[in-house]
Amino acid sequence: MRVIRIGERYSISTDEVETYDLLPVKTYVVMYNEKDGFYLTEHTNIEVCEKIYGVHESKVKKVLHAFERFQRSLGTILSGDKGIGKSVFAKLLCQKALEQGYPVLIVDEAYRGIARFIEKVEQECVVLFDEFDKTFKSNKENDEQAKLLSLFDGTAGGKKMYIVTCNELRGLNDYIVNRPGRFHYHFRFEYPTAEAIREYLEDKLEKQFYGEIEKVIEFAGRVNLNYDCLRAITFELNQGSAFAEAITELNILNVDLEEYDVYLYFENGEVFHRYNYRTNLYEERGYDWISMQTKQGISTIDVKFEKHHLHYDMEKGAVVIPGDLLLLDYDDYEDDIKIEKSVAKYLAFVKSKRNSVHYLV
């Protein structure tokens, strides 16, 4: 392999010319045009200058340590909604990789034949595919991701670290997800917890506005807020706006239904549930009817409630409504007398997470 530099452009060649033996440790973007074919252009080195929240740094060290020990290419998937930390994690990983002597190649276009070009880079490096599910489509008509499977297998072109970020797991090829031979790691990013939101706001807010923190956390219990939203809210609060005013003026509007695991607790210990219930708690007006069942799935009960009665319970980490504000309708319950003698404690909404069930009490 030979690396040819012309100005700020680096090209890969197998011809005998005066060249670098290896790519200098920098950040590059993969480019292509009909005249020159594939080449690399220099990109400003990736740096993360802001405070890192959560377990990002320990996970980055884990990936880099694994890459050092791997005898083949290592792939990492970063999945989750927009604005919840995937890009920051990817940037931090690239930054640390540069510090350890690995060049970084950014792929942001689905050029035809790009896999063969990357294979020509016969040195250990990082290849970042940001928003992979959007840039490389995977569908019946044209599966651009399938053309990269042999590249991710690491069977040619030497050992590399592949980083893929995606917003929708459904947008990934079936031969990428749940295939640790190709992608060893899969980090799933969730929305900030109440503790993470509190830490963020205490870092970013002026102390005179700390009184608004609980209001933001309560709102986040009803509606998912990513770090982009928190950044905007913090700015407005630091300008002296009350949260109630800021949230009506910011470009933050949840028009989609979100999924919740819903639990109805009785004083006698009986619990009814409904998993993955879809509703919009952003709007406080109106009411919902929910059909729920016992843990054994034998008996059902319908629950009616008005949304404006819901409030976020910090201790339980859930949106709750007291039992005396619920309207209950029993349906074919074999032991109605047992339940009727018991008082409903409260109804609780917990944001659904993949493959998890929450019990609050």
Please give the structural blueprint:
Blueprint (H helix, E strand, L loop, with lengths): L1 E5 L2 E5 L13 E7 L3 E7 L12 H14 L4 E6 L6 H14 L4 E4 L6 H6 L6 E4 L2 H4 L13 H5 L7 E6 L18 E4 L5 H11 L8 H10 L4 H12 L4 H7 L8 E9 L4 E9 L7 E8 L5 E7 L4 E3 L4 E5 L4 E5 L4 H5 L3 E8 L10
Strand content: 25-35%
Helix content: 10-25%
Q: In one word, what is the shape?
A: elongated
Number of strands: 17
* Radius of gyration based on Cα positions: 26 Å
Structural class: alpha/beta
Question: Count of helical segments?
Answer: 10
Which class of the largest domain in CATH terms? Alpha Beta
Q: Please mark out the parts with pLDDT under 50 across 5 or more consecutive residues, or reply none.
A: 354-359
Q: CATH-wise, what's the superfamily of the largest domain?
A: P-loop containing nucleotide triphosphate hydrolases
CATH topology of the largest domain, which one?
Rossmann fold
Strand arrangement, major sheet: 1-2-4-3-6-7-8-5-9
